[in-house]
Amino acid sequence: MLVRAKQTRISEEQKIAFDMPRTMDPMWQITPDTDYVVFSVSCLQRPGVFGRSVVYEIIDDFDRLMPVPACLFEIINSRPSKHWVVNLSEKAFSLELQEFVDNPFLSERILDRDEESLATFSVIREMLEEEESGRAR
Hints:
3-stranded antiparallel sheet, 28% strand, 4 helices, globular, 5-stranded antiparallel sheet, alpha+beta
């Protein structure tokens, strides 16, 4: 799945629509009109930082695997990855890789720069980026 960034901040209207905290105003490290490979899609069921919204996990402009609200993007290629599995938890319904289902803290460990997790993610990243580039042909 491939998405293109439209904006870097959530509008007040989007915060209301998705039940997001009104005081939250982060600027995500994404570049408008730039395409990003989606590593997972989560439909959040409980209010929290992202409210009740859809969140994509992407590699941001600082080369970090980060959850980013889907409302900041437009979908360029809607075909889901053949490597995704369905996962249902108390927090979300998601499409993600089995590695993330088996290890719910993998994203955090990648962000913390854990060597073993980074090695695992390197393989995952190459696999998904290759899959997406093959679709463009």
